[in-house]
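Cross-check.
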Amino acid sequence: MLQFLLGLSDRQAAEAVRCRIDFKYAMAMELDDPGFHHSVLADFRDRLAEDGRADRLLDLALARLKEAGLVRERPTQRTVQNYLDRRGIPRPKSWRTLGT
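Predicted model, tokenized:
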């Protein structure tokens, strides 16, 4: 999520994990953790795209946010994807790797 929010490439995100305390904290890593190779992020996205795993993960996250009272109950949650689809805007190429 940090990679997406900050608009980082895989290489930049992997470097941030090695060098930035805030990234290590968000990932529950020790300060001396050496991080990981940038190709791990592409591999992770590939695995996430298999068998609807991304949808299950998002559904679980949404359920937990609702339980914590951080998200209001609505018939349909609004997403960037819905926004783009309603306006006929093509999805970014990076989203296509997730099978959407």
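The chain has a mean pLDDT of 81. Residues 66 and 75 are 13 Å apart (CA to CA). Passed to J.P. for a second look.
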